[in-house]
Design goal:
- The structure is a single chain.
- The protein has about 160 residues and is α+β, with helices and mostly antiparallel strands.
- A hairpin with a 2-residue loop joins strand 9 and strand 10.
- It contains one helix and eleven strands; from the N terminus they run αβββββββββββ.
- The longest helix is centred in the N-terminal third of the chain and has 29 residues.
- The chain starts with a helix and ends with a strand.
- Strands 4, 5, 6, 8 and 11 form a five-stranded mixed beta sheet that branches. Strands 1-9-10 form a three-stranded mixed beta sheet, with no helix packed on it. A three-stranded antiparallel beta sheet has the order 2-3-7, with no helix packed on it.
- It has two domains: about 30 residues; about 110 residues, Immunoglobulins (Immunoglobulin-like).
Length: about 160
């Protein structure tokens, strides 16, 4: 090998020493991000399956543009009460808790009530989803299906 080839090989090896660990950490952290709905554990929280004897909660959402031009999320629940002071309890709850708000698959915030200002949304289609969650953060499910509601908001048609 020529001296230039040896130097290039050393540069390439140095690059690989830093690049490979970066890729490994990148995939590890993005696949284990609690806000990433496409990860293997779906919403990264345990599940709180509604047992027999409890009324099954439900959630329905609506998104409307307000007079200021921002977007308002309305959250209507049945058989469910928001309990912000109990969030973080170690015991699951089935008819009280909080909600998680996702925009385009990314967790944005917790919800503790009926309304939330979404601000401005990106141009095009936006999926807004809300899940009901137990005080211990478990996603409430009934018969294995998460209790959630979602809508698509198309900002181009406004």
């Amino acid at each position: 090998m020529h001296e230039g080839e040896v130097l290039n090989m050393k540069k390439f090896n140095s690059f690989l020493v830093f690049f490979i660990p970066f890729i490994v950490f990148f995939f590890y952290f993005t696949s284990n991000n609690e806000h990433n709905l496409s990860s293997a554990s779906h919403m990264q929280h345990d599940v709180a399956e509604i047992p027999g004897g409890y009324k099954v909660p439900s959630v329905n959402i609506s998104v409307t543009q307000d007079m200021s031009g921002t977007w308002l999320l309305g959250v209507n629940t049945a058989n469910f009460s928001f309990a912000p002071k109990k969030v973080g309890s170690e015991l699951p709850s089935y008819n009280e808790g909080h909600a998680h708000l996702y925009i385009n698959g990314k967790k944005v915030n917790r919800l503790y009530g009926q309304y939330y200002n979404l601000g401005t949304l990106k141009k095009g289609k936006n999926e807004i989803m809300v899940t009901l969650n137990s005080n211990d953060h478990g996603v409430l499910t009934y018969r294995g299906k998460p209790i959630r509601s979602s809508v698509i908001v198309n900002t181009e048609s406004e």
